[in-house]
Amino acid sequence: MKQLKAMFPDVLGVRECGLYNADGYQIWEYARQDDYTIVAFDKDIPVIGSVKGFPPKIIWLRTGNLNNSAICLLFTDHLDQFNAFIDDERKGCLMVYPNSSSDNQTIEE
């Protein structure tokens, strides 16, 4: 988290929000109330988003668990795409898939 915060000061982890033991609904509601975008690895949050709608927006990393360095690299490599997604009022979930032919990821809106 320290690497991400150094690059993206507005990033908050669930621990910082007091939501470490919270369920997906609580995290979703916190993000909705405070206008955060959720970055998720598992399907719980995106499923909630598909039922309840957006905001909050969800960036769903379908990459499997990544270490902090890989997450930082992913965010720097795709920062323009992530920002465009966040700014687009018509879209609620952005899925990021691993690309089997290289270390790059595939983005699907």
Description:
Residues 2-94 form the DUF5615 domain. This is DUF5615 family PIN-like protein. Pfam families: DUF5615. It comes from Spirosoma validum. This protein is of the alpha/beta class and 109 residues long. It has one domain. The chain is 41% helix and 16% strand. The chain has 5 helices and 4 strands. The chain has helices at 2-7, 24-34, 44-52, 68-77, 79-87, and strands at residues 38-40, 58-61, 93-98, 105-108. It has a 4-stranded mixed β-sheet, with helices on both faces. α3 links the parallel β1 and β2 (58-61). α2 packs across α3 (44-52). The longest helix is centred in the N-terminal third of the chain and has 11 residues, at 24-34. The two termini are 26 Å apart.
Structure summarized in a few sentences:
By secondary structure, the protein is an alpha/beta fold. 41% of the residues lie in helices and 16% in strands. It is built from five helices and four strands, in the order ααβαβααββ.
β-strand number:
4
Low-confidence stretches: none
Q: What is the helix fraction of residues, given as a range?
A: 40-55%
Q: Could you give a short account of the major beta sheet?
A: 4 strands, mixed
User: What's the gyration radius in Å?
Assistant: 13 Å
Identify the notable features of this structure and list them briefly.
4-stranded mixed sheet; 109 residues; alpha/beta
Describe the SSE topology.
Elements: H1 2-7, H2 24-34, E1 38-40, H3 44-52, E2 58-61, H4 68-77, H5 79-87, E3 93-98, E4 105-108
Parallel strand pairs: 1-2, 2-3
Antiparallel strand pairs: 3-4
Helix pairs in contact: 2-3
